[in-house]
Amino acid sequence: MDTFLEVIDAIALFIEVLGVAIIVGGFAITSWRFLHHRMFHEQRAFMHYRHGIARALILGLDFLIAGDVIKTVIIANTGQQVATLGVIVLIRAFLAFTLHVEVEGHWPWQDSRYLGAADGGRRDSPERER
Predict the structure, then answer these.
(1) Residue 67 burial (CB count, 10 A)
(2) pLDDT (average), residues 56-80
């Protein structure tokens, strides 16, 4: 049983490290692209930069949540640790939710096809295609 728990702990740690690597790598790649853009002072280039960082954060947070869930549910499932996990997951889910709204320009439950996603979802009356 100890070997099983060690393997699960190693898997959870690997998933968490992968999440951190995604965040750091996404930030580095997006920053490099932004700084090497011919006209990085333009508003459009800055918005691409912000969206790239937000996407890396969202994906990295998903991996971090998965690692925490695996570690807490299988390895350390005391009441206090599960409560701590719940708070951590709520905070990370809230961050992912707000980042999604920032990047996509609409609520997650809204269909972007009907919001004019090409123009940032800023239409007052979306046209529905049927």
Answers:
(1) 20
(2) 85
